[in-house]
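S.,

Sequence below, as promised.
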Amino acid sequence: MSFQQPPQPAYILHSRPFRDSSLILELLTPGQGRIGCVARGARRDKQRRQQSLQPFSPLLVTLMGRGDLKTLGPVESAGSAYWLRGRAVYGGLYVNELLMRLLPVGESQYQVFAAYQNLLRELNALAGEEADELLAPLRRFELALLAEMGNCPSLDYCAATQGPLEPTAVYRLERETGFVPVHRHDGAAARADEFSGRELLELHRALQGGELASGLLTAARRLSSLLLAPLLGEKPLQSRELFKQVYGKK
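The prediction came back faster than expected:
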């Protein structure tokens, strides 16, 4: 008899055809994180696929089987789908691809799941007409994801002094240790991996639930890019390429 798990919340991150009539779905769940399953006959049952097996739709899914690739059982709607518009669609696809690339399989991700739900609510509220609308929600999600994965050092802590950051000081990101003070000669150019204490402390507050002010977006982008680069490697993100094809390089 096939092992059946209790129903659990889920979002679909990715789907691809499998055999003649099925789909392989990659799901994000709170208790098991990223997990793959087979939706048998889903390509044949167009009504089921169109109504429930869509990205950005909160689901309640039942998974069966003990292996890494589960079988999808009953699926119920867990709320209204998020109908992202314009550029916000590509923001959602970008985040789904990030989660596919970065999250390990089968590890609980309660905080990531909650951050993902909050992000979808933010994206759903956007008109999607301007790329700038996406910047604050995406940067905040990137940094929250990196922090949950243990790939973002504490943004209020100096690794050298083992104490709080000073707002007026300048710090350099060292991946293995965290943020360390920088003592630059007058006139020396700032590096991409350097941040003011004020920037880091305000980013820390934003991740604790505060607003990510527009003046912090450049620093947030530099920091997330530095931290994501070694994790993503040389393979480009398809969602970014698709965004460029549709909207150009804005």
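Strands lie at 8-18, 22-29, 33-39, 59-64, 69-77, 157-158, 163-164, 170-174, 178-181, 194-196.

Coffee later?
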